[in-house]
Amino acid sequence: MTAEPEDDDPERDGAGTGFHPVDQVPAPGRLLAGGFQHVAASYAGVVAPPLVLGAALGLPPKEITFLVGAALFTAGIATLLQTIGFWKVGARMPFVNGVSFAGVAPMLAIADARAGHGDALPVIHGAVIVAGVLGFVLAPSFCRLVRFFPPVVSGTVITLIGITLLPVSFGWIQGGRPDRPASLTNLALAGATLVTVLVLRRLLSGFLRQIAILLGIVAGTLIAVPTGVVDTTATRHAALVGFPTPFHFGHPVFEVPAIVSMCVVMLVCMTESTADMLALGEIVGRRADEKVIASGLRADTLGSAVSPFFNGFANSAFAQNIGLVAITRVRSRYTVAACGLFFVLLGLSPVFASLIALVPQPVLGGAGIVLFGTVAASGIDVLRTAGLDQGDNLLIAAASLGMGLIPVVSRAFYDNTAIPETLKIILNSGVSAGCLTAVLLNLAFNHVGRGRRAP
User: Which value, to the nearest 10 degrees, does the dihedral of the CA atoms of residues 106, 110, 115, 116 take?
Assistant: First the structure.
């Protein structure tokens, strides 16, 4: 395919070029600039989950750097699968794929359950592989199951994702020690970062406004340098070029409780990706039909199944990049493919990846309040359209949020030894517990016996 200039007129549909705007290849300069813009918009989201998990596992800075590099590398592979694709894999739309926030809380629960065993990451990777394969097999049929995930279910789950991750931000501000009060230094760094992000979002526009969180993290780190909390150990010993060694943390371990938990996450990710594809199809002027959705879900799940081989995690579509497409009107999937290539290259440079490990935890905590709070607010926005005043939807959302919040409010709530470990893994994940509750209640109140109920 020959390079075509990106059409600046959003009303044109590739007329005169033979290609829909989604399939046009911009000139090299615009291709690279557009790709970097998508990197900037999604970078913080890609590296946040491995930072969360690495800190929770108590990994040293060098290993956290490795985990971040692996996340970047596998996000690049998943994005290329989604945008370029092959066979029946890939929606071939301008989608950025990266580590899903939905998987963080269940992975933290798995890490807690494996504390002291030293094999948390292999167990997580084994569960992600199985969940990815299952999702790939279910992709063609999942489109017909979407009716069981109406807004009242998806909105509840997205809200819980944000709420269950907010305590992680608070833990960062406490220096990774939730059992201790935050120091004045940590509070000041977190506050300065949060204020910086909010001010930048208020004052900036266009591209710079899109990367306000990233700019806030950079500013917070610079402010933290004089305080002596910036650890440069990983950067001093990082190689210029490196490859995410397959199974660096050990070969995958397959445990039923962890697999069940991650399979639930995979269904949530598939639901979110389906909604994202429908929304993006409207924005780019190419409707996402059942065939496109199935191909897109195959890319999501295949990318997730392959990621653990390179020490990565479950991937899904990034909604923030959909907004970027809407704002810039650059609809070319090759622009986002360039973003995927950038991610791969960044993942192959440990020195660059180590720069992320320089960010102090309190700075991440300040930015995380906005980052994770935005996810929760997005879920509330979905619930707003769910018709909570109709039927038993309010009851479904209320009970599901309550079940999902139990492990957030009290991590020791299900520590009773009489509860099977399989069930503990699910119950200790607010996302998994809330999602299962929402799906089952939606089936009970809105599907089972519906024909016999009075209108």
Answer: -160
**One-letter identity of residue 56:** A
Side-chain half-sphere CA neighbours of 134 within 13 A: 18
Q: Which amino acid is at 126?
A: G
Q: Taking a C-beta distance cutoff of 8 angstroms, is the pair 257, 424 a contact?
A: yes
For strands 97-99 and 315-317, give the pairing. Answer: antiparallel
Positive or negative torsion for Cα 314, 320, 326, 332: negative
pLDDT digit string, tens, across residues 235-246 = 776 677 778 889
**What is the mean predicted confidence (pLDDT) over 102-111?**
80
Q: Quick one: tokens of 131?
A: 């969940």
Burial 73-94 (b: 16+ CB within 10 A, else e): bbbbbbbbbbbbbeeebbbbbb
**416 to 115, 335, 406, 411: CA distances (angstroms):** 17, 52, 14, 12
- Distance CA(79)–CA(90), nearest Å, equals 9
| 384, pLDDT greater than 80 | yes
pLDDT tier at 105, thresholds 50, 70, 90? confident
Checking if the pLDDT of 148 tops 60, the result is yes
| Burial (CB count within 10 angstroms: exposed 0-12, middle 13-18, buried 19+), residue 394 | middle
